[in-house]
Design a protein that fits this description.
By secondary structure, the protein is α/β, with parallel strands linked by helices. The protein folds into 2 domains: 136 residues, Aspartate Aminotransferase, domain 1 (Alpha-Beta Complex), CATH 3.90.1150; 237 residues, Type I PLP-dependent aspartate aminotransferase-like (Major domain) (Aspartate Aminotransferase, domain 2, 3-Layer(aba) Sandwich). Helices cover 41% and strands 16% of the residues. It has a 7-stranded mixed beta sheet, with helices on both faces. The longest helix is centred in the C-terminal third of the chain and has 24 residues. 50% of the residues are buried. The mean pLDDT is 96. The protein binds pyridoxal-5'-phosphate. The site of pyridoxal-5'-phosphate has 13 residues, from helix 3.
Length: 385
Amino acid sequence: MRRVYLDHNATTPVAPEVLEAMLPYFSQRFGNASSVHSFGREAKRALEDARETVAEAIGARASEIIFVGSGTEADNTALKGVAWALRDRGRHIVTSRVEHKAVLETCHFLERHGFEVTYVAVDRYGMVHPEAVREALRDDTILVSVMHANNEVGTVNPIAEIGALCRERGVLFHTDAVQSFCKLPFHVDELNVDLASFSGHKVYGPKGVGVLYARRGVRFEPLLHGGEHERNRRASTVNVAGAVGFARAVELAAGRLEQEVAHLTELRDRLWEGIHQRVEDVHLNGHPEKRLPGTLNVSFGGIEGESLLLSLDMKGVAASAGSACTSGSLSPSHVLDAMGVPLELARAAVRFSLGAGNTREDVDYTLEILPEIVQRLRALSEMSR
Ligand code: PLP
């Protein structure tokens, strides 16, 4: 059976070039980057080269790049770290209702520990408007965190404007750029960000490595205490192979960003147009234009997204649901809910996320099997009424 992977927002395969770059750091160049001997120095050199590469890609200084364990860790460090460091200046944080759980749950934690959080509303496309952020700012606001692009619907936020207004008010601005990285240009000065989170496994790099960008002078308390790694900002022996892999992934992406965007946009639009032509009662979730090139979130009226996913999986197509299964009942995604998508349609949502390895044939195969599955599920749900 043909297997088609349309879930690249969940994770991506490691690119062969990335794997090749990493391999020596598991075997002959296994040194601890903190050791002073030649093995250590060799690892340290690779680590610092990787740091340079990542810094250059986003217009930052090498000293502003901190290697961490994941996108989640970068988000946690940014939010908890700044909150702790600036708690005497203020205890109010602004974020949006559509953030990833790595940000939302961290905010909930902070609320349990004496901070106040304002969750800014979004429009029907899931976009956060700078005006809404401006209205949420208070004299005791210490941090604003708004994601660059949404992982479920792909909507891209005007973060340069949000960053600019934060700077005007002297408030730090963090963005979760896990989904936009290597898909959209990212330059820390052009986007006015003070802190940003990135993850290796979303960009054809390995799992278990992420990056936190923290502008020079931004104070934050580390999440992990211990050794003096990463200039005292993240204790723990550094994952050198991971950092090398991350940097190689970034290099590869930088060299083919334009082609990749064109490729993904073409496939995404082909998929949507095909669905739209072949299936009735379908709804596009997310911004029609200001959206990640490979992300397509669609609600199929009258069916559960989960059932559609399972049927697609049986035919070899891997996608993802717009709803999460909690304690046996399907709860709609908080993103679609914030966008005002009616419950029925939120439950009927499926996310297709395309990637570098996808072809037109993948899209055409999906379009070939999809109408019949939808028809069958709709008939079943009619019968059970
Ligand atoms: N932020 C966003 C927007 C994401 O999509 C994800 C992963 O799904 C994360 C953070 C978490 O990244 P990681 O899986 O590296 O912890």
